[in-house]
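Researcher: Let's run the pair from yesterday's discussion. Sequence first, then tokens, for each.
Model: Starting with the first of the pair.
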Amino acid sequence: MLKISSLNANGIRAAHRHGFTDWIEESHPDIICLQELRAMEHQVPDPIQELDYHKAYHTAEKKGYSGVGILSKEEPINIEKGIGVAWIDQEGRIMMAEYENLIVFSIYAPSGTTGDERQKLKMEFLDIFLPFAQKYLASEKPVVFCGDFNICHKAIDIHNPKRNKNTSGFLPEEREWVSRLLQTGFEDVYRRLHEGESDLYSWWSYRAASKERNKGWRIDYHMSSPELLELAEEATIERAWDLSDHAPVSVSYAI
């Protein structure tokens, strides 16, 4: 069994202070996809760097911003950072680790909540990402794109769909993009293992005791090729941990 976990750390140094290494010790993921490191590689806390994992990071050029990483017990046979689009790569949003029988990506899509300019860039990112991801469906190895896509797909994925229908992260064009991603052949692994189940969220605002009241959004995904979905046996949002404003989303695959 191979357990893959995805976590938007909202700052790896903050996540460390909130028990990141304790979570690893208890949860035992084989592969950890991290988003929003908000640190340069040399700023990752020593206890994390000393973990018995192979570590690779793709940090943003801007200090304290964005960045993704992949930690794994098995050493990757190949690491690729970025996709050759300058602004996306400068923000440290996409990286890949290839293993003997699997390809894993850590993805951090832009948020559009700060205004029209960032929303425009978010849509540009999505337009670029879709054909990039599609290429991997033809790969000889199964692939999974793990991370924070900053989009709730359907009404079941957000606590108040009516109030948020004009909010970035639940806009019709964003939701339609997720549908297109799935129509091309990808699978939303967590949802497929929890069909029709409501109140399952991976992010909660720090305001108004949102997590305690479970007023959340499901914006963190495992988007896999079909053959990997068939191997998925258990999918969990580990909400008992308060590592950040996101919870780890973990899937165990029969690999």
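Model: Moving on to the second of the pair.
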Amino acid sequence: MNQFGDWKSNLDRFFGNDFWGEFEGMMKPAIPQLNLYQYEDELVCIANLPGMDHPKNVDVFVDHTTLTLKGKIEINQRGGRLLKNEIANGSFERTIDLPFPVKSDKIDASYKHGLLIVQLHRHVSEPNREKSVHVRYLEE
């Protein structure tokens, strides 16, 4: 293990102290982790948010073809020295592209046992349906 520390120190001296920071984003998983399920006219997104104590700590935004999750996970462990840090902690934001446009007025979201479940419904347009427009007669 000590050899790894020496190797890292040598690379830091050669490439500079910010060398590892550029790789860190590529190696970390996207937060929150999620599954997206597609049905005929519906999408269900299940996001893994362990440690989030209340759904008020997450905001869900839908913009026609994107879903954005923003929030904060706080692990309030006081004292002691952190030896391993694998659980996401702090603020997060994740935006994903949806496979089809969704309705902005028909969205359901729930949170239970560390999972955020967002149900979205396909926006169905009727491109070939003509809509009659009433023409008002204005007298002079």
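Researcher: Give me one sentence on the second I can quote.
Model: Residues 31-122 form a domain with the Immunoglobulin-like fold (CATH 2.60.40.790).
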